[in-house]
Amino acid sequence: MLGFFDYTVWLTYLSLLSASLGIMVTLNGGGHPYMGVIFLLICGLCDAFDGRVARTKADRTDVQKKFGIQIDSLSDLAAFGILPACIGNAMIRVCPTIYEIPPVKGGRKLDIYTSILFYTIILVYILAAMVRLAYFNVLEEERQKNETGSRKFYLGVPVTSAALVFPTVMLCQFLTTADITPLYFVFLLVMAIAFVTSIKIPKPGLRGILIMCGIGLVELLILILCFFKIL
User: Fold this and answer.
1) Whole-prediction pTM value?
2) From CA 158, how far away is CA 144, in angstroms rounded?
3) For residue 22, which of 28, 110, 145, 148 sits 20 to 30 Å off, Cα-Cα?
4) What is the pLDDT of residues 15-53, one digit of tens each?
5) Bridge pairing between strands 153-155 and 200-202
6) DSSP state of 202
């Protein structure tokens, strides 16, 4: 059988499945962006620990290591590239109702020019995410030829940061009756630029990862509790 299926890749596979479900939910019928955000948060939680889990297996071959790098990037493109874009697409098309979120005044109505602008940003975001992931793969392969251990910093903002940024933006709708769709697309564009900007960002340690996971879990809990009261 092609591929590897031991415990070192389970979280990566789970992240891809979560992303796929999120994409289908946001694109199916009317779509629901907040349901998509739930799956995005699950992807983020899986990604936070997949590398650490993989490194616990001491006898991984070079092929297994390279396979892990490739599937991680492919999964990340779906989870943190395509899924946030699909959430944005759902926000353009629908105005979902959740009791705890104030209804958007006047509903969600966008003119044709604004819609074209937003769809252009979606395409730019997906392209930037793919370019960053491919470039990271090349740099990581070169680094591993000359260094041992894990990297100490990221070049450019990791695409995985989308798992925390966009849910936070979406939860702003809890605080206002103004339509946050334009705000979401501002962040979509900012993140696209940040993905391909050559700035050095220190790689978070276990404490930083746990803090981010804690924030993500709180956001996930808020959304899940809200969905028990969906109309």
Assistant:
1) 0.89
2) 19
3) 110
4) 999 999 999 999 987 678 888 999 999 999 999 988 888
5) antiparallel
6) E
